From TrEMBL:
Coiled-coil region(s): none
Protein name as catalogued: Cna B domain protein
Species name: Granulicella mallensis (strain ATCC BAA-1857 / DSM 23137 / MP5ACTX8)
Gene3D superfamilies: Carboxypeptidase-like, regulatory domain, Immunoglobulins
A Pfam cross-reference name: CarboxypepD_reg
Residues annotated as signal peptide: 1-24
Entry GO MF terms: carbohydrate binding
UniProt region (Disordered), positions on chain: 161-194
Alphabetized UniProt keyword annotations: Signal
Length: 567
């Protein structure tokens, strides 16, 4: 019995002792695994960028920058002292965004659409940041007529003034908002970010609008009522190049009032094209031209002119102000005519007396799919004049959305231009770029073309853009929030590459500049340099002397560290 008891005791001791040992080892392994799987957190304080006071009840959200459709954190509100703690799912570069009443929606250290991502790693799973948040800014004002009476339902358009960062040469962004005046002629453009803006107003005299709508024949219109308001830029300019720039800082409000004066409207007499004169029943069809004002965005921001009469194939178009217009007809195959109206133009014009443009047919040569919407011409001497191409592929040769298969294509691509010199820009494809131009009936220098009459132009394109990435440091530490600029060696020469590519460094000093046209560049970084006017050649020259020259080949992926310069 004793022996049996002792044996049983020994077996019990070995069995349960082994189990307790296994359990302890399992708990130790779990502890080790837990210690190797750090929790990732973004912590910090949100403060008013003007007063530096904390911003309570501010909603914070984080999203991975390299996966816009990927994981997003839950929203967390700051406490009364502006503190927050946002747990995130993994290591990586996280874009942190703040939302609070009375403030703009903003990413960390945001400038002109660029911001600093918060980079978390296994070695540094938590980062504490100071988040300055800008209060809302606004522009307000009143629109009055020649009798100092309010102009109701005037359309006020806000346009941001930003450097041209994209390869199609157009400002990004452009239109930032619109508003209509109330019965007192007042308007407000609220919730604006700090930046530079221009304001435009378009309106019609109420008495002229009533007179035109009650008359079917232009001959019956009272000349004293046949007037218009020109599109007007603050503080009263009719030329966009003379518009004033309004600079807003966080929490500021600026007043922009307008005083509109009427001028005589211009009438344009148009004949219906012969190709669309009659229907299958032998009756003239109802056809109206499309008259598009050419603006700095290359599109129609102006009001549509009044069609006053359609008699025996003739159209009388009234309500035109001095400016440049594109006239096209339905079923015209994309062909159009440019009309130039000046302050000295007669009050009644026909198409031949106002025609000012030249027609340029376009062909694309290269291994890429190119559509008309991707080709833009910008007047070198007046960059406010932007002309998009038009047209489509010939039947049977079109790709999706009417794009062209470039190599061996036949097409109806074309553009109507004023005589002059233009830079040619190609956009819409992340890997395709323009290599050169060739022309018949026009002069080509690099990426520019000079036209005096009708001509044909071939755009030679290829693929293989480059990427530049790396880290910027300042005084031995990562340069956080630095402005990184890739300046073409030919900057300032319109016939060459003119696009300046930019980025903002993240919390580890990293940056990336994708989709760069191959060529020679100088890379610079300016520590917190977002207030530096690098558009000024004298200012830029000082930074270029200490930049890094880069010769980018097709398809290159360059890693480049750079020392940031003081602002």
């Amino acid at each position: 019995m004793r022996l049996l008891f002792s044996t049983a005791s020994l077996l019990l001791t070995l069995t349960f002792g082994g189990c307790w040992s296994c359990l302890a080892q399992s708990q130790d392994l779990k502890a080790i695994k837990t210690s190797k799987a750090p929790a990732f957190h973004i912590t910090g304080t949100v403060v008013n960028s003007v007063t530096q006071s904390p911003v309570p009840r501010c909603r914070m959200t984080a999203m991975l920058t390299n996966a816009p459709q990927g994981p997003t954190s839950d929203s967390f509100e700051t406490d009364e002292s502006g503190r927050f703690d946002v747990p995130v799912a993994s290591a990586g570069a996280w874009r942190l965004t703040a939302h609070a009443r009375g403030y703009i929606v903003q990413a960390l250290d945001e400038h002109e659409g660029f911001s600093s991502a918060i980079v978390l790693t296994a070695e540094n799973p938590t980062l504490d940041v100071l988040f300055p948040l800008s209060p809302n800014s606004s522009i307000f004002g009143a629109v009055l007529d020649e009798a100092n009476e309010p102009v109701r339902q005037a359309r006020v358009t806000l346009q941001s003034v930003a450097p041209r960062d994209n390869d199609n040469g157009q400002p990004t962004p452009a239109v930032r908002g619109q508003a209509l005046t109330d019965d007192r002629g007042h308007y407000e453009l609220p919730n604006l970010s700090p930046g530079d803006y221009r304001v435009e107003v378009q309106a019609n005299p109420w008495y002229a609008t009533a007179a035109q709508s009650s008359s079917n024949q232009s001959a019956n219109a009272d000349p004293s009522l046949d007037v218009i308001y020109q599109p007007t830029w603050f503080p009263g300019a009719t030329d966009p190049a003379s518009a004033a720039t309004i600079t807003l800082h966080g929490g500021e409000s600026s007043e922009a009032d307008f005083h509109l004066l009427p001028i005589a409207g211009i009438h344009l007499h148009l004949s219906t094209p012969a190709a669309v004169v009659s229907t299958s029943e032998g009756q003239p069809p109802l056809r109206f031209p499309q008259i598009t004002p050419i603006t700095s965005a290359g599109g129609a921001l102006g009001s549509v002119p009044s069609m006053l009469s359609t008699v025996q194939g003739q159209v009388d178009t009234g309500g035109l102000a001095p400016g440049l217009y594109k006239v096209s007809w339905p079923d015209s195959g994309g062909h159009s005519t440019l009309i130039q109206i000046t302050a000295n133009s007669p009050r009644s014009m026909d198409l031949s007396s106002g025609a000012a443009g030249v027609h340029v047919s376009l062909k694309v040569d290269g291994a890429a799919v190119i559509g008309a919407e991707q080709i833009t011409f910008i007047d070198v001497n007046n960059p406010e004049n932007v002309f998009p191409a038009s047209g489509a592929a010939s039947p049977g040769r079109a790709g999706r959305r009417g794009n062209l298969q470039a190599r061996g294509q036949s097409s109806d691509l074309s553009v109507d231009l004023l005589p002059g010199r233009y830079s040619v820009h190609l956009a819409g494809s992340p890997d395709t770029y323009l290599t050169s131009l060739s022309a018949t009936g026009a002069e080509v220098v690099g990426r520019t073309v000079t036209v005096h009459g009708d001509a044909s132009l071939t755009l030679h394109v290829t693929s293989g853009r480059s990427v530049v990435s790396g880290f910027a440091h300042y005084q031995g530490k990562p340069s956080v929030g630095a402005e990184v600029l890739l300046i073409p060696a030919t900057f300032g020469e319109p016939e060459s590459i003119t696009t300046v590519r930019r980025d903002q460094t993240n919390t580890d000093g990293s940056y990336q500049l994708p989709e760069i046209i191959p060529g020679q560049y100088i890379l610079i970084a300016i520590d917190h340099g977002w207030q530096v006017n690098w558009n000024d050649p004298a200012t830029l020259r000082g930074y270029l002397l200490h930049g890094v020259p880069l010769d980018l080949k097709s398809g290159a992926n360059i890693k480049q560290e750079i020392a940031a310069q003081a602002p």
